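Pilot study result, target chain (93 residues):
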Amino acid sequence: MPVEVTLDVMLARRRVRSKDLAAHVGITEANLSLLKQGRVKGVRFETLGRICAYLDCQPGDILRYVPERGEETGEGAGDDADPGGAAAADAAD
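Predicted structure:
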C-alpha cells in the first residue's frame, strides 16, 4: 500500500495508550488497531482531525506516502492537464 500509517510511532512519542485515543476519538479499539496496521481502505477527515487534535500533530505525522516499487514519483504527471486551469485559479483565491 502506498500510504503507510505511523500512528503507533506517534502514540509512543506522546505516551498515549490506544485505549485512551480510541475513547477520545469515538471509535472502537478494534478499529483503531486496524487503522494502526494500515488495514483500512479509508479514514474520515473528522476521525483524522480528532486523532491529530488529541495527539497534537499533523496528518503527515501519522500518514506517509511510500511509492511502490517501479511507481512514478509524480514528475511529469499531469502533462495532459491544463497548466493554468482551475487548480491555478483556486490557488490564487
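One observation from the pilot: The two ends are 34 Å apart (CA to CA). A full batch analysis is planned for the follow-on phase.
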